[in-house]
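Recap quiz, item 2
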Amino acid sequence: MSTVVCFSAILALALNFQWGLGGMVNFGLAGFYALGAYSCALLMLKGGFNTFFAALGAMGIVALVCGLVALVTLRVTEEDYFAIVTLGVGEMLRLVALNEDWLTKGALGLTGIPRPLGELIPPPVYLYFMLALSVVLVAACVWVLGRLSRSPFGRVVRAVREDDVVAATLGKNVLWARVRIFAIGGALIGLAGSLHAFYFQYIDPTQFSTIVIAYAFMAVIAGGRGAHVGAVAGAAAVMLLLEGSRFAKELVPGLESDQLAAVRIIIIGIGLIMLLIYRPHGFMREYRLQVPLKHSPGQARPQPPKEAPT
Amino acid sequence: MLQTAFNGLVTGIIIALPALAITLLFGVLKFPNFAVGSMMTVAAYMVYALNVQLGWPLLPATAVVAVAFGFICIALDYVTFRPLRDRGGITLMVASLGLGFVLENVARFAYGNAARSFAIELARPFRFFDIRMNREQMTAMVVATIAMALMYVLLTRMPVGRAMRAVADNPSLALVRGIDSASIIRWTWFITGVLLAVGGVLIGMDRALEPPMGTSYVIAVFSAAILGGLGSPLGAFVGALLIGLVSELATLVIPPNYRIGIPLCVIALVLIFRPQGIFGQMYIRR
């Protein structure tokens, strides 16, 4: 249970990096997540890699695919199109998992996925090991992303998000920065997918439905776009609230499980819109380099420029 | 081959309606609305409620729901998108994703996951030189063509349509000329609602009614709008016909499961070679 929170925290971190920091919406998250889980599983089952290299491989594969998508789409166009393309690519990836029986066993799913150090640690203790591993990985991701977003690269990334024309004018390679952000996010998605495969030891296409996207977006918005710790906290809060709502089944009799699942997504959707309207910056602030301005004492952080009304 | 082409044409003319809705909205409000699929689903289920549960004939049921759904869209805009209007395209896009989740699952909550269909009597397919057309396909063609013709008249001959095009083209200039943009936005949503309701019913007739029915068309609809040039109504129509034709014909070569890949490839090709689409103009944001 809490281990699952860690996967969604990593997913939220990835989305936060791509969307919150880089300004690129990834609507194909579920598909990329599936790609990560399947590549990890297949590298072990068919490729004979051990768990560590399989996870690394999965990260590499998802990063590569994400990078390619960004490279092809962003070379010519704006973010609107990018969202549509990611949506489509995500759907295609899901379809491949569903239809290529020779590789992915289709709707039956892959079973018997090995776990890291699975032979050494006895099953009863294993859950705790997995939890510890996931927590360490989440912490590592937060640390790495924190370093990245404070680095010069992070500043370029934010500059690109705020105004790509200005960034380009200042001699920054906008396209390359975006491709890298998206690929790094992809690597994280691959990591989350690998953990998913390790934890459940069984994957099938239905595990990677749109609800994954809903969770991740909700977590990022709740946590505050651009704030890494916020994304983790947001993911934890969203998962606990919504998975906790499974127990609501006993409280509200007469609801079928389909209906309950539907109510959950309705709540996420409404929550998402309400947060966007009432709490657009979430509950935690993004890290910003703060320089006290001489001209305006007391106002360390200039107001972000309002976008022109359309 | 001919048969496949005909089926493609029918699919194309069905997705022309939502593609037109997307393109009108994009023109006026400058954001891609990802909730279109779920909006069609909800409208189709509303027609289902009148048609099957109350026993109305399909045509009046569709007409009533189309008008009602126009007002529902205005209401949805009022609670969802209006407060976010000046926050930029990405925020609106994410909000539309959330709205899509809500609507699709409202339908799922009310009617479950099982596929349903409208109460229409089965009729023997009609043959015309070797091409088999069934009654639903004929109806879809006729209805969608009429809707398109009406839209054309509205956009080119009527003051509201001209105002809409003016706002889409240059909002500040339109404002200077005394066009009330709030009322134009309401009109746009109303027309969107009508188009989506009709589109939803046609999809429901062509396939079946189930919660993901609308969402599964989203990519095709967007690729039609992009191919035609986002913001260009004529482009949406032509783009939709082309997408329908190409993706049906492609099933002769590739496995039908991957039909959705065709619109995706079309988007990629358009973006690489002609990002403004067939009829669109290059526009520079900001």
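The radius of gyration of chain A is 20 Å.
Residues 295-302 of chain A have pLDDT under 50 and may be disordered.
End of item.
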